[in-house]
Amino acid sequence: MASLQILRLLIATLKGGPGKTTSVILLAIALARRNYNVVVICADTRTRGATDWVQESLRLGYTVPFKLAIWEEKNGPLSAFARTVEQQTGADAVLIDTGGEQPEAFAHGCLYADKLIMPVGPMNGELRRILETYRHAAAINESGSKLDISVLLTRVPQAGKGKAREAREDLSTDLRAADGTPDPDKPYALGLHVLTAEITRAGAYDEMYCIIPDDVGEYEDLCTELVGPGNKPGTEGAA
Ligand SMILES: Nc1ncnc2c1ncn2[C@@H]1O[C@H](COP(=O)(O)OP(=O)(O)OP(=O)(O)O)[C@@H](O)[C@H]1O
Ligand SMILES: [Mg+2]
């Protein structure tokens, strides 16, 4: 069997509540159902979104198909904690949920992860919030990390159309000056990789909050984009 690459994913933005926790949990469910051994690390020491989601789901009688590890400051740096969790659980997918305004946890998440996904809404005001997150992540890459950075459009009124389409175009165009100064009108025009999957603004996602739904909606498409179609390689026949 070909050796499987571990998916080490940080889903984070330093500002706003664009759907980080929702994205982590629904993607974790999708991966687990494709036979990945998934661990979600709750590194949001303030709102504890992922922890609450799991605990509430268990209380309601749902089976949670992934493991949860709760990081606290007393556990030491998040990057070392994540590595230990990965080894101890034999996970092949580790997803980290961080809170906003937690630059230190964010930086350590970036050091551990191979991939950073920044969820963002397509409205101008929300797009601007990505700048600080990107700056931090890019600085970490400049100091030698090889973090693959992408944007996930969330809460879009209509996938592939209108605001979503405009936001995709703007984010993926690089309008920075030669010295790297962002464009004053569109500071988020940074030549970013925008994931093809888009998450619509829908009450259905709100209803999935704190349960384990049968259907994770467009997060299934995101899962396919990240790991390819079908089950974990080598487990195609498994349940
Ligand atoms: N695509 C969506 N459509 C509609 N509602 C959504 C969507 N995604 C998330 N929500 C809702 O928005 C709220 C915030 O989502 P979530 O907790 O995932 O954001 P967050 O980025 O983790 O926020 P925080 O920074 O507070 O941790 C929740 O009530 C959630 O149900
Ligand atoms: Mg959250």
From TrEMBL:
What's the superkingdom here? Bacteria
Q: Where is the composition biased (Basic and acidic residues)?
A: 163-177
Region (Disordered), start-end ranges: 162-183
Pfam assignment, any one: CbiA
Annotated ranges, domain CobQ/CobB/MinD/ParA nucleotide binding = 10-159
Q: What is this protein called?
A: Chromosome partitioning protein
Q: Which organism is it from?
A: Kutzneria buriramensis
